[in-house]
Design goal:
Number of strands: 0
Distance between the termini: 76 Å
Radius of gyration: 21 Å
Helix content: 25-40%
Largest sheet: none
Number of domains: 2
Shape: elongated
Strand content: under 5%
Number of helices: 6
Structural class: mainly alpha
Order of helices and strands: HHHHHH
């Protein structure tokens, strides 16, 4: 009985950035997140606080489950701050080598509206980044190689 009383008066645990999603969400939400490769709250912080409609790229999540996840981040804003501390800050620059560009999955063009079915494409590119690389390789002059 004493242990139960101690638990009743103990503060609720706060989520930590490295916590597994199993600890904070229901089984259906966890199954969808893990199928998308999202295993920890750190994996979620990359998506949730940064983008509107972030859940559209996760099959099976939907707006109702997304609101459940967003509620956790709203109740614990320190999660977002901890996530920002993990991301390296690069000096601001307008110029960057093409090879260093990282395109988020949501906008990489793999599921684009105007993307033709793979069997009908003459160019074997899986996303927009590969399309640009192919175009550059066709137009590169020997002097710039």
């Amino acid at each position: 009985m004493a242990a139960v009383e101690v638990l009743r008066s103990a503060p609720l645990p706060s989520p930590l950035i490295g916590d597994d999603v199993d600890w904070w969400f229901g089984p259906r939400t966890v199954a969808v997140l893990k199928a998308a490769g999202i295993r920890t709250l750190a994996d979620l912080t990359v998506r949730v606080p940064r983008r509107r409609c972030w859940w559209t790229s996760i099959d099976g999540l939907g707006p109702a489950r997304a609101r459940e996840i967003e509620a956790l981040f709203a109740a614990h804003p320190d999660l977002t701050e901890r996530a920002r501390a993990l991301v390296p800050v690069l000096p601001a620059s307008d110029v960057m080598p093409f090879e260093r560009i990282v395109v988020p999955d949501e906008v990489d063009g793999t599921r684009g509206t105007f993307r033709a079915p793979a069997p009908t494409c003459a160019l074997r590119a899986n996303d927009d980044y590969e399309v640009v690389q192919a175009w550059l390789s066709l137009h590169e002059a020997p002097a710039t190689q």
